[in-house]
Design goal:
This protein has about 600 residues and is mainly alpha-helical. It is built from 26 helices and five strands. It binds zinc ion.
């Protein structure tokens, strides 16, 4: 077993024969598709044969492109300075861009077929891709004509994209001044944000005040970017025939409004429980009036558990196996076949990810393994993503793209399996530490995300009438935090500038990029609650569910697994698993 991942299943090198040959094959395939579409899609003769041809050729293209892309991506992930990886990523992107017009043309052609459903029923290949085809038609209904789309795309470069770049520039160059022993020092924002985790209370508090004061320098510019981007989103959603930017996001998430409303209502109900956690944390840190915002990430325990990589592997595999043999075997396969790049090293990117290579029916996982418990959890998280791909591996590539709210289901689920097992085995000190991290993370995903949803709603509503001033944006943020955190936070120490550095409000094409996180966490917890109810039958239902995530709307997918996401009780059950953790945390806090 190696501690570095094996990429030879893809290619030996960039300059090797196989890589270069595939690059040529890609050119040929692209050219073939472009030329074919030009003459074949000008009329509606032989529609069935043409539809089948479209799908077959797209899948061929996908298989070549995926291998080439994966090799570039994975090589540069462990060797960021690799010039060939950068060069070929760029070449690939340029080549794929040549297909843009053909894709639009194909979508329009498919959407103009009169009896699409009849054709789908008449062909096994088309039937297999029913969801894929119908989604193209649905999305196409919100596309304008080709000339208008091309104008919009070009204007966006100088509109929302330019605003987003400007905002990123302001924030990335932003410096915070902090006084240290009578001397004023300038720190990059990222360093100051990290001070929130410092073990020294004075550092955390000082960093917060300095950060808030520093935004005066950039607030007008960032507010202009927010107004510009949200204004454009409103214009575009109207032009495209959506009732609101929220509806646009819901459609892209394959989610309906009833699901969102049921989830938000359950979240709102559970806020008091989270507030009791925050107030208890405040007490532990010596505050009487709720937790100041700058103490949200403050460590309250110094307990540590260490796991060597071998111990971590054994712990993960054993607990995965207690869920199902398949999951346990999957982890073993990933370890034994060198799918994981384990240790930090120079030039390797930070963090962790899992990358699925469907053509090989394999995944590759990047870790930066230390010896802490959180490294074990990260391993479980990424293996969870890998297992999701494992369950999708017999699906057509067109049926494997799952929407953002479902993206973290399998990873969160596997995290939960391992955390629950660890808490059981840990002593009180350690159980307390694990619970605190877990609840603190959940508070971000449930309470803070709720506040972000409220904030973004207010911003859109206001922006429809007129741009917002800095003061109005700050007020909207404070109102949202008060409503979500209630008496859990000290009202004198909230954070009126949480809209400045968070990137999510400034994406040109994605809005309300907040509730999918809450959905992800709560959906996985809800599945876990189902598992506890019926541990024998659930594992196979779970695999079935994962295998369907790329070809169904969320409502239909969950119905197939006997879950009703329109029912607030499903969300209540998910939240209950977190509420029980909070109760346990509070109980332990008096015992240790
Ligand atoms: Zn993840």
């Amino acid at each position: 077993m190696s501690l570095e991942w094996s990429l030879k299943e893809l290619y030996d090198s960039f300059e090797g024969e196989n890589f270069q040959e595939d690059l040529k094959k890609l050119d040929v395939q692209l050219q073939k598709m472009i030329e074919w579409a030009e003459q074949a899609l000008d009329n509606h003769e032989d529609e069935k044969e043409k539809l089948e041809k479209i799908i077959e050729e797209q899948l061929k293209l996908f298989a070549i492109r995926e291998k080439l892309g994966a090799f570039c991506h994975l090589v540069s992930a462990t060797d960021s300075k690799n010039k060939l990886a950068l060069k070929y990523s760029d070449i690939l992107r340029t080549k794929m861009n040549t297909l843009a017009e053909t894709i639009t043309k194909t979508s329009k052609w498919i959407s103009s077929i009169e009896n699409l459903q009849e054709l789908i029923e008449s062909s096994p290949l088309l039937k297999e891709h029913e969801f894929y085809l119908n989604e193209i038609v649905e999305d196409n209904a919100h596309m304008l004509d080709e000339r208008e789309e091309s104008i919009i795309a070009r204007m966006k470069n100088t509109g929302s994209s330019a605003w987003a770049n400007y905002k990123n520039l302001l924030v990335s160059m932003h410096k915070v001044e902090i006084e240290d022993k009578g001397e004023i020092k300038e720190y990059p924002l990222t360093v100051v944000l990290n001070m929130a985790y410092d073990t020294d209370k004075e550092v955390r508090e000082k960093a917060y005040h300095a950060e808030i004061a520093s935004y005066k320098k950039i607030e007008e510019g960032v507010a202009a970017a927010l107004n510009g981007i949200k204004g454009e989103a409103l214009t575009l959603s109207e032009l495209r025939g959506y009732s609101s930017p929220l509806e646009m996001t819901l459609q892209n998430s394959r989610m309906d409004r009833e699901t969102l409303d049921a989830m938000l209502a359950a979240m709102k109900e559970s806020m008091p429980k989270f507030r009791s956690y925050l107030r208890r944390k405040a007490e532990l840190l010596g505050y009487e009036n709720g937790l100041p915002f700058y103490e949200l990430y403050a460590p309250v325990s110094s307990a540590h558990m260490t796991y060597s990589y071998e111990q971590g592997q054994a712990f993960v595999e054993e607990n995965f196996r207690s869920f199902s043999e398949h999951l346990g075997n999957f982890a073993r396969k990933a370890f034994d076949h060198n799918w994981i790049d384990v240790m930090p090293k120079e030039g390797k990117r930070s963090g962790a990810f899992c990358s699925s290579i469907r053509t090989l029916k394999e995944s590759r996982i990047l870790l930066n393994y230390g010896d802490s418990f959180s490294d074990v959890i990260t391993m479980a998280h990424e293996l969870g993503h890998g297992f999701h791909s494992e369950c999708l591996k017999n699906e057509s590539a067109h049926n494997t793209h799952y929407p953002m709210p479902l993206a973290e289901t399998a990873s969160t689920f596997c995290e939960t399996i391992v955390k629950k097992a660890a808490i059981k085995q840990a002593d009180k000190q350690m159980a307390f530490a694990i619970l605190e991290t877990e609840i603190s993370d959940a508070t971000q995903v449930i309470v803070d995300i709720y506040s972000r949803y409220l904030f973004e709603t207010t911003v859109f509503n206001h922006r429809e009438e007129s741009p917002l001033t800095v003061e109005e944006i700050k007020e909207a943020m404070l109102d949202a935090q008060k409503e979500a955190y209630g008496d859990g936070l000290d009202p004198n120490f909230l954070h009126p500038y949480m809209w400045t550095w968070k990137p999510h409000y400034y994406y040109a094409d994605v809005h309300f990029y907040n509730f999918p996180y809450a959905f992800g966490l709560l959906f996985a917890k809800g599945l876990y609650a189902q598992y506890l109810e019926r541990p024998d039958t659930f594992p196979s239902e779970y695999e079935k569910l994962l295998s369907l995530t790329g070809k169904m709307k969320i409502k239909d997918l969950t119905s197939a697994a006997n879950i009703d996401v329109h029912d607030i009780n499903f969300w209540r059950a998910s939240l209950k698993t977190i509420e029980e953790d909070i109760e346990e945390f509070i109980k332990l806090s008096y015992e240790i």
